[in-house]
TrEMBL record:
Residue ranges occupied by any YCII-related domain in the UniProt entry: 1-114
InterPro entries according to UniProt: Dimeric_a/b-barrel (IPR011008), YCII (IPR005545)
Protein name: YciI family protein
Gene3D superfamilies: Dimeric alpha+beta barrel
C-alpha cells in the first residue's frame, strides 16, 4: 500500500536552524530513512520551501485568482513529505514515529493512503 507521510512544522523554527543544526537533523533523518530505502520501500521525499515562497491559485467567481502565499490560518505548515510503499498502516506509523523522534522541528506527521494517477491510463 502506498502512503504519503506529510510532515508539519513551525516554519520559523526549522528555517532558523544554523547549517550545523540542519546537517545534524538531516543526518538523523537519513539514519531513519535508510532501512526503508534499502528495502525499496521509500519513494520520493521532499522538503517544501517556506510558505512565504508559495503561490496559490484559488477558485474565483469568474476565473481563478493567483495569490502570494497560502494564507493558511495555522501555526504549523506543511514542511515536506515522504512516500512509502509498505504492507500495513502500522508500518507507516512506526516509520513516522521514528521520524518524529529525530526531527526536533516537526510537530506532526499525517499519514494518508494514496494511489498513483497516470493521466490517460485507466485502472480497474
Amino acid at each position: 500500500m502506498l502512503y504519503a507521510i506529510l510532515c508539519y512544522a513551525h516554519e520559523e523554527t526549522v528555517f532558523a536552524w544554523s547549517k550545523e543544526e540542519e546537517d545534524a537533523v538531516m543526518a538523523r533523518l537519513h539514519t531513519v530513512q535508510e532501512p526503508l530505502a534499502r528495502a525499496g520501500k521509500l519513494g520520493p521525499t521532499g522538503r517544501l520551501m517556506p510558505t512565504t515562497a508559495a503561490t496559490t491559485v484559488r477558485k474565483g467567481k469568474d476565473e481563478p485568482l493567483v495569490l502570494d502565499g497560502p494564507f493558511a490560518e495555522t501555526k504549523e505548515a506543511l514542511l515536506g513529505f515522504y512516500t512509502v510503499d509498505v504492507d500495513t498502516l502500522d508500518e507507516a506509523i512506526a516509520f513516522s514515529k521514528q521520524l518524529s523522534a529525530v526531527n526536533p522541528g516537526s510537530t506532526s506527521y499525517e499519514i494518508r493512503p494514496f494511489y498513483v494517477f497516470h493521466p490517460g491510463e485507466m485502472k480497474t
